[in-house]
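User: My advisor asked me to double-check a structure prediction for Protein translocase subunit SecE before group meeting. I don't want to rely on an old file, so could you generate it fresh from this sequence?
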Amino acid sequence: MTDTAANDAQGRPAKSGGKKGKKLGFFARIALFFRQMIGELKKVVTPTRSELLNYTLVVLVFVAIVMLIVTLLDLAFGVGVGWVFGGTGPTER
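Assistant: Sure, here is a fresh prediction for Protein translocase subunit SecE from the sequence you gave:
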């Protein structure tokens, strides 16, 4: 079995990131949040132009495929409901 952080805890509660036994004040917590936020934003890598174009095309193709599937299902259910409850199709009233 591998040794992971979850296995190391052995049922003990997680240690807080602050000082031992001392709770941070309101403004100290806000300052800590902003320091952590800036640290995470420094890790962000912006994609190159070709990567961005590739990602955009993948998303557009995926959305088009899902739209096609939903349209076909909507038509199939409309015809099915029209058949079950009488009538010829979804537009008849």
